[in-house]
Each structure stands twice: as C-alpha cells, then as structure tokens.
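As described in the Methods, two query proteins were run sequentially through the folding procedure within a single session, without resetting any intermediate state between them. The first query and its resulting structure tokens are shown here.
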Amino acid sequence: MKKALIITIFVGFVLNAAAFLFAAKPTIHWQFLFMFLIVVLIGAIVVDLILIPSLWNRHKIRAFIPFCVSLICLSSLMPTIVVGHALRNYLFKSRLDRYEAVIQMMMNGSIDVEKKLNKVELPPEYSNLAKATLAEKDGNGVLTVEFIIGYGFPLKHSGYLYRSEGTLDDWQHVDRWPVGIRMDDHWYKISD
C-alpha cells in the first residue's frame, strides 16, 4: 500500500506540474506528458478502487487512502490549470509594452506588413514574444496582428491578437480563431 501511495503522489504531482506548465506556456511536450499521466492517474484510481476490498481486512479505513489521494490529485487539476492561465495573463500584461512597441513598428512601417495575412519576422530583441507572428494591413489601413505563443496537438494554437479597429466583426479571417476573448479595446486572447 505504501508503494502505491508514493507512486500515486508522484504521478499526481508531475501531472499537476505538466497541467500548470501547459496552461501557462502551451507546448506539445507538456500536452503529451499531461495526456499520458492523466491516463496513468485514471488507471491508478481504478486499481485503488479494486484493491479496497482486499486491503480492508488488514488496514480497515486506511484502505481508502490511496484511492482518496488519487481523487485529490485529479480534483486539483482545475485549480492548477486556472493558476497556469493566470500566470499566462500576467506574463502578457507584463510584456504588453513590448507587444505595443512591435505594433508601433508595424504602424510606422519599420516592420513591413502586407495586405494579406502573412508571417512577419520580428526584430531579434522582440523574437521571444511569440513562436510565430502574422500580420496584415487591409485596404482601410486596419492593422491585425496575431502573436502565436503556444501550440499543441492536434493543431491547437493559442496566442494574442491585436486589431487596430478594435472589433473582429468585419475581419475576413475571424473564423481562424473559434475562441477569442476580448482583453481590452484592441487585444484578444485567442485559441483554436
């Protein structure tokens, strides 16, 4: 029982760490680790539940401890993910002046932006803001910039979108991002 408890606690801890890191900075590596460990933890819950009757005669009420620990590990995932998203939001807000500097460079022509949505290379000092940056300036001069900060499987992306007009209503590529949460007048948190 002690070994099972130690393994369950370890798996639960690593699972929550992977969930936190994937929520804060999505990568396919954290996502696959999370997916693997959630299956392991669910397996542990099933095994712990099956073992309760056989452990009952020897350990009485303590036979429920591994099962309860597994449930605690599983139930702690949502708060962990919420904290990871809060960290991601904090990091965005702390870097907002750098994102705004890139927007200004695009507005004043220091960074070329085409009329069609295309990948844009950021200056080296701003390259750590996003895994990929796409931008367009339409015929009316409305600037739209996508900062892709994370990715996952299958084809899951997340990031931030800037729109100089402030609304996405008439943007021709709005269907690219099924989830778009307005953060302020010009910024959206996006994911697919």
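Immediately afterward, the second query was submitted; its sequence and tokens are:
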Amino acid sequence: MKKSQNQHYITRKLTEQWEINNARDILCYDVLGQAIKYKKSKTLFAHNNLWPHHFENFFNQAFEREFNNILKTLDSIPLNQTINCDVLREKLTLIFIIHILRTSRTYYGEVKGLKQLELFGKKELKKIISNFLQKYKLAIATLPAGDNQFFFMPCSAIFPFIVQAQQQPFSVSYAFPISLKKAIVLLENSFLEEQMNTIINNGNLARCSLGLGELDKVAIPPYYKSNKTDKKIIISYCKKAICLNRELIKTSLKINSITKNLEDIFAMLSIANQSSNQTH
C-alpha cells in the first residue's frame, strides 16, 4: 500500500513569516466558521498526495532552494518598482505560475498545465515565461515600514485587487504575498510604473490579501498575536474586510481566468514542439 505523503500547495518557505512560535503554529481566520484558530504550518495549506513526488522535486529546484536569496535580491529593488532584471523576473514569474497552478489544482479541480509544467525543460519554461510576460508584467509591492499594515496569506496564495491603468476603466489584477511586507503584483502591460504608489498608498492592498471569502482559511500576520489583539476584533476586521473586497470587485472571481490563459500557452507550446519534432 502506497504511503500517504503530506504535500503543501503553498510552500512552508512562504508561510514561515506568519509563524508565531517555535512550534511553527500559525494563527488563522476560519472563513466559514468565522473563528480564529491555531494551525500547524506542517498541515496548513496542505493535503495528502496532491501530485507525484517528482513534481514536488521540480518545485523544490525551481523555487524553495533559492527562496532566501530571492528575498535578499528583492530588498535591493527600489520600493514599488517593476522588475527589470531578466533572471529575477523569470524566477518570480515561474513562482507565480506554479502557485497559480497548484492552488487551482487544489480548489478548482484538475489543471492540465500542472502535469505539463515539470515535463518541460529550461528552454520550454523560458518560452512559457516569455509568452506570459507579453500580456503581464511583475512588480514588487512593498507596504510602508513601521506601521501596522501587513499582508495576510489566503489559502489561494494569490488574491485579486482593483487597479486602474492610465485612461483605462477599473480592472482586476492579482498579487501574491512573499513576505509580511512584500508581494509580487501582476499587472497588465498598459499599467504605468508611476501608478504603483497609488496601489500601495491607498491602504487597500493589505486588506485585499484577506481575499473574497470564497475559500476556507487565511493566515493572520503575527502582529495581531504579539499585540494581544482581542480575537473578536480580528474576526470583526476580517469579516468587514472580506465584505468590502467583495463589494469592490462585484463578481466572484477565481484564479481560473489566469489558469485558462496559462493552459492556452501550454497548448500552443505543445503543438509547436510536436510540429518541430515531426520536421526532424
């Protein structure tokens, strides 16, 4: 009988900063039960046997081994800037894509791209990233230091928020917390760099990281524990923030929209590879 394996759809490398003690507990908001609970990071954002072991190895190589170095590199980037370093941009785009696929697979069913992703070599991955970046660009959003704004970590990892590109109507974009103060932000290429500060300074981005309440749990920043904030206050804030997020966005959004875009890219790449193989 095959032994069950505990696998994280949001890696523990990402949730380390949300841990509140040496036992690696994380304070969570239970969206459905509207309660505050303590969860072990070992089992939070995890299920048994989500995918084959070789995909877990692929993800470790693509992200986990380099995560600390990536964070250090991000610290050297000016606040709220788009990422222009090609190597870093490729790594972060791959991280974003992988987490979209992993959380989509966990909550929304089978995702074709997840099976394909680890079969591609470096050359194919570069094509995927290149195609992805033809529509989107990545930026690092950094919350102001020294205040009580921190990112929550929703169980979808990626959360939607409202943006407005120059002379364009309001639209929905996505962000992905990689620390308590930093998030990878996905923007349409029409969005101008000088508009980044508007996103950060209006105070909405941290609140939006609570998500839309369509999934089941959210990791709470340790700030609330260390300041002995009453649980009722945390619950009240989470409920109100989620309601406001829903009201602003109006529709029940899922990561499936980006997932479909990615699957189209995978399909085009597969057809291109097959054609190439037939000509040799």
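The chain has one domain: 9-18+25-270. We note this only descriptively and draw no conclusion about the first query from it.
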